[in-house]
Amino acid sequence: MPASRRNAVDGEQRRAQIVDAARHAIATLGFEGLRVRDVADQVGINIATLHYYFPTKEALVAAVVQQIVGTLDRVPPSGPARDPRTVLTEHLAHILGRFEADRDEFVVLNELYARSGRDPELRATLLVNDAAWAGFLRAIFQDGRDRGQFRADLDPDGAAVLVVGFLKSLLSQLDLTAERARGAADEMVRAVLRS
Amino acid sequence: MPASRRNAVDGEQRRAQIVDAARHAIATLGFEGLRVRDVADQVGINIATLHYYFPTKEALVAAVVQQIVGTLDRVPPSGPARDPRTVLTEHLAHILGRFEADRDEFVVLNELYARSGRDPELRATLLVNDAAWAGFLRAIFQDGRDRGQFRADLDPDGAAVLVVGFLKSLLSQLDLTAERARGAADEMVRAVLRS
Amino acid sequence: MPASRRNAVDGEQRRAQIVDAARHAIATLGFEGLRVRDVADQVGINIATLHYYFPTKEALVAAVVQQIVGTLDRVPPSGPARDPRTVLTEHLAHILGRFEADRDEFVVLNELYARSGRDPELRATLLVNDAAWAGFLRAIFQDGRDRGQFRADLDPDGAAVLVVGFLKSLLSQLDLTAERARGAADEMVRAVLRS
Amino acid sequence: MPASRRNAVDGEQRRAQIVDAARHAIATLGFEGLRVRDVADQVGINIATLHYYFPTKEALVAAVVQQIVGTLDRVPPSGPARDPRTVLTEHLAHILGRFEADRDEFVVLNELYARSGRDPELRATLLVNDAAWAGFLRAIFQDGRDRGQFRADLDPDGAAVLVVGFLKSLLSQLDLTAERARGAADEMVRAVLRS
DNA sequence: GATGAATGAGCATTCATTCAT
DNA sequence: CATGAATGAATGCTCATTCAT
N or C: more exposed end of chain D, with fewer CB within 10 A? Predict the structure, then answer.
């Protein structure tokens, strides 16, 4: 363990610091306003040092994307035979909670989706995620319909699209409050239940 | 038809050409990739000529925003006593149709919403629009519930949020096909109908 | 006399208007800040119209120089046998008066002298003027010394240089007031008189 | 002597190089003709490098002004009880000498005075200098008169204005030679002496 | 690992000037 | 004579990237 001088930190820690600063910069200013110099300043290091860790701006952005997407992958595992209504309700509450807790994550994610229109690779990555998410919800609706808890004429895929759409639009519905969002979540649940 | 040596066209026409080219550039490359030089090239004019019409890049962007937002304002007027279900169905079909017809519009609009997080003025403009849209839908749901056509436990506001969310997410649901989108629209309608 | 429409004016009048506007622009902003477009705006005509009268910016500047230098040439003719002291006193008062009346003239002239360092042609023009001015003063001092009105050890050329220097420095002595300037003029006269 | 691949020199040295080049450029072409690109070329560095040291053209100009004005401030301290005539003679010779040695300094200073008409801040700076200079000379003349070495009817302030005027006009008296300037200086001294 | 200094490629903007009408 | 529209050639400035120390 070499004695560290000044604010010397472990390499991996430095990388994380830089990625976090970049993530925040993107959330605040968009990709449009991302400047590697500013990120370096934020971390308190020289630009040349930043380039030692991330040779190009692209590499830094890729690391941020990795971090964000990595977080997303962890779709909450639905217990084998849990109640579909509860699972749906909890899923909605879970995402809504994350939205309130870390808006930055959603902002950057939004930027990522905007970018995906021009970046095929990014698009592929996000598409995999979207498909998995829709599948997760489809299974819930299928299960609920099969059990007779949800409407018999319920279209599992259509409902999945509605849920994903609602949750993805959280940031872009500018007139949305926390209460209205919860109201919409409740309405979604009622809408699929058997009357 | 006076053929002019210099490729001169009517002033207003020129402005429109430039705005259209800029709009397309934003849709293709994002605000991030917008270069006035490229817009000028696209139109086939000199950069200085572009600046003759739009003194700054900001003014050009403002014109594009104006064009897009201006299009949005025209919320389809609901006939006095039209059938709520039909109105809803038609509204969903109308937006879905526009999405298929002019994806650029939605892409730029998406960029605009991303920007609104950093641009208070833009945010205010879009917020007005969002509020009007939600109000329009809320009235439909209210009407349908009052008439007994929609579910008695329907929350008009919650349902409005779900519809807006679905339609706003069209672009960011990467795995969405035209059919799946229509399926979701159908599901939305079924979900609010009295069983 | 053709009927004139709108603010149509005679050609020579237009030229004069433009030159005056340019002169004022130079006095206000310096050559550095001279913009032909602004001059045209000031006159209320199109730039292209201005270029009709003055094909190039250089031609416009030349016209301004001409106007200023033309004014200078009129060195007040010393009456054949006038009193040297009176002539000197009047000359000093004359320049001082003009300085108070039309500061713009002195400002532009100052700009001209600054420019003469880079513009040999302008330098030649101004040099002729300077030489004539010095000669005029030298003659006065010579005359006054010969008549015994001025000091016997007076150096006519040296005194001429002092007078010209004083008058040329009016603009660049930032702490100078009208009174102090008059005081210096008086001192100059006393300094050459026989005690 | 560490030879560096990139033509790097000490930071402060670089700044000085750049300021000197800018000063010379201003002396040669005026503020009107000052181009940061040309200054960079003169120094042999990239424009971006120049902007590394001076973020804006204005900052560079300010540095040049600082350098020039800084030099001026050093008014030669008059020894406690030195002979007024000698002090005056030496002062005149000192400025004349500097004029011959470094004409650039006077040219830039002249530009500065021209500029001061549009730049209040610069005007304030130069005004302080002018007032100090006039005060310095006034004290000399006062002292000489009190001692009976100078004329009894000498106006110290008027004489100070004449001296400053003469020295400031050195550059704009186009027909002036070194000899004529010395002649004028001698005349100035004689003019204040008691006959 | 870290940094000061340097650079190339670009970018929005300005400005005198031109030309068809 | 007058003008709207157009253009070429700068001009100041930015930014990601590099490299010797």
Answer: N
